[in-house]
């Protein structure tokens, strides 16, 4: 490795200190830095590769899956179409597709699920986003419990489940339209609520902006918000929190 | 009166049919129409005069109150400042000012209160808007019950009162920030919910737009919405509904 | 039933007060609450089941209609496509579809129509939204009179009908583009005006936001607003008001 | 004058064609263009100098008024404060200030008023903007008739005046809140309607954007719109149209 | 006619004055008003029927054209598709379609063209909107001169034509992207400039809002604005102004 | 207590099961629910009382502080002015005010600080919001380390501290203007990043909306966002996460 | 040429000075101006013809390419579809199409590449916009180095290349989502950064507005911004700067 | 220095290669990186210290100026108030304040001005922003020529100066209202145009957003845009370009 070689040359006297300093000036930003950060993150996090499938060319996408499949690794692809699945499947038979969450994954090493994340939706139309969140969290090793269609228009449905939700380490609230679920939930639990506005609705919902504003302006404590329809982001953050609860931060 | 006079002249033969037709062509849009509509509305509605005080000059405002006071009528002024009150009071001692709702009124003929309107707020900061609504409704003859600070961050407070709210003919929900109260309320009652977004909040609440969008996009049934901070409008509409419930529409 | 059983055990001494209290702590939010609210609402409102068809899978949608059809109940589905109708019809022959309002319904028990709701539109393009409102109101038992194409660009058309509109208990104003109909209407009647902005228009109408803002900012009294194109919501609220006028609030 | 001098030198042979061409390359964009446009416009339009007073320093503003006063010209200043008036008055006693329109003017040569422009407002709060329009039009020689407080909340007031308004060459509609006046007016007259949204209102009126959108999206024919509160612009355009009607376009 | 009949009965003594007054109370808003306005407008304006084709059903559209064709009248349809043309043509062979402006018209009585309107565009992509404006103006009897692709990115093209444009009674400026053409034009002419923002552009043009804002905020005098892509509205207003210039307002 | 009493009466046979059921129908939503939720939350969370001081009247505010001071409890007030502090101090000498964070608190029982939260800002102008976050977290028992002025315009400042930040359980990123700090941070750490957009900036920052959008749209993993300038919300959520890391979720 | 001819006639006495002045009044804005500007720009800039292909008709587009091909000139067409390419190719075989950048060009005279522009992207999805920029710059004679997928979510990738980027004369940063790359880049280099927001992203990215706001509000020095997805504009400006660096401004 | 010391220890054998590698892993992001970047930028750029004065406390601000004054350095402070100037002046007599640009600076070493930047404004109200740009550029060593009040409402004023503007290396266009100056300018010159939208205007200008959109959407080549009122940013970028033109990029 370069740094080691450089230091050895200094030690052996074949490289002057002046020249070594000059070389080091560039080094940290290039190969050393690159390698270090990547290894560092993988070792500590155990987060496998994630691919945003939307807009990728078929060749590119298939290539990525083949590569990781060959290396025996797990891969999580989000926002994949059924058509993409059909194409990748031809080269990588082990790939699995979920129509609802639109997740396309290879799971060669099953991680044991730990802790607990509660994933809630206001309506049935929010389920695709919630499933992206739930399956992302599961892929990264979190145990997940689903509580779907517990929105505020029939709030007794939420109350019927609230004691169970309270037992989780973290809770995800996916809701479109007016997005009030996150507020009500945060008023009833004392765990972090990750709010995911969804684009479900019509008229003045502005593709989810209405729900986003509701969640950002919530008067209840303990809510933080991710992008509209960003189930993946919610699942990732929830997993980070769940891991902290399970084993603390190393 | 002009129409009567015209018809009499036709009857008496002092006005030709041609000339009468010509005169009538203009009439409906002018004095006839004017008088008719005004009398018509007063007789049926019993809605006294209402004044939007904000921005009126002192002379103008005092003049209006003096005029109606002299006529023995009731007047409801909204968005009045204390300074305006001080000035009007000098000329019209019977004027009454409420600091919270900013209503400046003369009430020379007390109307009996009938029916029931429930006025709810999410927080204490929404009370000024709610009071404008409540006092408007009372001024127009509605019985009003207040349920303040029953927002979704502590939803048990709302539940403690929900059976009483259900007994009203109509309910007003004033809420700022994320404005989720209207949704939760409409999910729990089966009377019309008039939602009033308030400008309470900060950051991305955009002066009440966040709450407005929440209410307009609500997935619960039976919500209709008035302008941000428009307590007066909510009180007026609620009174219309309350009257219908009390005596039907004539 | 659980609560009864619990109380009986307490009465019989087979359950200690301590254990009964613990059980009750969970109960209200779950089965008890659930049952109570649902029964409660159905008994008082007589509002049958409503389904938002848009985005539902064919299996899911057909299942719902089969279920309620078998139970001899009425069902109102909104935003249904003709394709959805074709599919549901195969399993539920009694289902009826209206191309204009896009309502897909089963009406096994005809409710008698009472009271009167006036449904107005500014132009002919607003009719689909108005029909969703009108047919929703009729489904829930309201008598409805339609006044279409009475917008402000030819205001005499509205004046020709205004006396009839005044006789209703409530009036719905559906308008796109600049949405001025609601303001003009509310200036001429003394019944509640439910304003429905429609997405009709182009350019800076922003899919109906222009009409929504017009209606929310109206200087006329007695207007409240529902979401863009939300004919269902307007019809529901209008029915609530119409019922109050017909028989008062129980 | 430069061009003449240049041509004379060419004629006299004291300037080569090459050098003349070079000089001409620059000329059109500079002095020639400058002089031509200015003289041209003044001769044809008779539009005197206009000054946007807002934000001008006292020295600058006073200087301008002194300059034109000394030249015996008329000057129209818009958006002037009373404080600015007090300062300018010290140096230019002939200056006249109108508190409502905030116009600060010198009128040394009274133009005869011709034609007719109708200036309408929805409410009394729109009068300052309407007066800026009316006084601008009068300053530039238009006869003006005012129709104030004829908004759609009491549409009979507008009908009482509509026949008079129809006799004008052009009509200005100033309205805030929901701004529906322009639509109703354009549906009743067949002259151009210049719509001026005003910032009057509150809540979701967004400082006049609501009225602007209403006017821009109007379904009525013959409306064109100027900026929020831009009474000056409306008065200027109305005068252009009024002149065309009075004497045609030269 | 009803009013005449009523007056005759009063004259003949077969209708009491009381009953006549009652009948008249309704009349102005209905048949009388209706007839008067329509006749009134047609006689004075000579504006034939206009149809917004977009979204009309084939049956409805064909019916309208057949009706007016049979009556020997002219009809102007805007925003028609080629498909609509093909369908209408089967029943009304005399119908004419223009692919660029998307105007579908019957012109059985050719009006003589008078006056002059200048129609300008910034680029070639703005031509469809400009043609809708130009052909609308021509249909209503205005002489039109086109000045296309004279936008500010190559301002010399505009200057080459400016003297001709100045000779018109009114000028239309259609521009998308940043829409600066209207400002530059209004700085160079002294006739009213009707600005039409177009939806041409991409990125932060927001479907024409960028050009709309540019035009509304213009610092040049004499600009008024219509809706995005509203060529029809611009052509209509320009014709109103052109007529005033040609013969004054009657 | 009511439930106990009720059950005893059932046990003793002095209350029928029917009447007990009826009484229980109301109970859960009122006193029982109220008490339960409150006690429940306090016991588990140890979160003391929090007060949003902004807009509270002096009497109201002083009353709250006196009440909790007398009870020997801790109180955290946010968005307090110095003037409010001066007034409260007269009655409650033990109250402490921090000019930067605008926190007004009583801390009678010092909680031991545990875990670690890293609070970062992009610039010095973001410090007030960051301090609200940091002091909120400390008040609720979190250990906090501050990393201020480490924004992306001089990214080496962030790198100099990154290893320390990585050791925290959770990290808060407060940034205005373009708000890029959150993205860069989340790319370098593997703990949850709570992003707080601040209203720092000018021009097209729209009072913090620019930073909010940056953070919501971040392509980096593990970011969730709270409202603009909502330091309190960030501190609260961070504390929830920190507690989970310290002791897991009970 | 006209001016020369005119001057000669003046010199020869066959044209009076009066008539010459009149002719000159029009000239500068027409043929003279036109020719001058065009020639002027071509000579100094060497910028060949550029065509915005989107929305052009096939006939129009083919005609343009045939014209310039026949003249032996280079042409750069942006936003061309493959279908357009197929059609143009039939008539102009020498035309070249690039699927990624969607550039359709004829390059008959290869310009030598000089200087250096660094084109960077945050992710792989930004490459189409970056390629439009890069290929535009190359077409106009700039040497270009690409640095793709160096976004802030993995900032070490950028550091690995930063020394090379610093050696360019100008740098382009294309990024969607939160667009933080431009800020980070400008903090690390001292050359002008042309920021191109891309529409890559979803949810609250508003088609690129989020990235646009991030870049416009950047706290880093030396950033200026072009329209969303406007790779062409960035490449053009970068070339202007690169030329200045290579040879200074003539 | 640390790196040197480290290398020496390796050379001397007092530090093992393992330990050196470990130390280096942290180094680049901390002291080394810090020093390097700062020195690096100062040496190459000669850009002195810049301070954003707005919102800084008096103590903080005075401290900064004292520090740099003592070091004999130049300092440029932007957005300073006169009050801030009065306070700083007491401690640092050499500080100079400009009322128009609001720049507060110390200039102990006068840099020779080179190259040429043209700074243009549309109106006189844009001058403060333009002066911030111009004085920033001068402070950093650029020669600047001002062209004020050359907006498109009187485009001949711009043409009179255009040949001079063309001689600059770069040009800044500051404009509010509709901001069309940048487009017109870019159509007439072939140097980079840095467009600065200003917040000058009213109504629908949205504090400068209108001008920003105009500039971003410009159809003219060679425009890039900075934030609203960001004269400093324009001056900085213009200086970068000017330097490149003067001496190329090192």
Automatic annotation (TrEMBL), chains A, B, C, D, E, F, G, H:
Q: Name one GO biological process term.
A: 'de novo' IMP biosynthetic process
MF term (GO), any: hydrolase activity
Entry superkingdom = Bacteria
Q: Identify the InterPro entries for this entry.
A: P2CMN_synthase_LarB (IPR039476), PurE_dom (IPR000031)
Q: Which Gene3D superfamilies match?
A: 3.40.50.1970
PurE domain residues are 115-247
Output this protein's name: PurE domain-containing protein
- In which organism is this protein found? Murimonas intestini
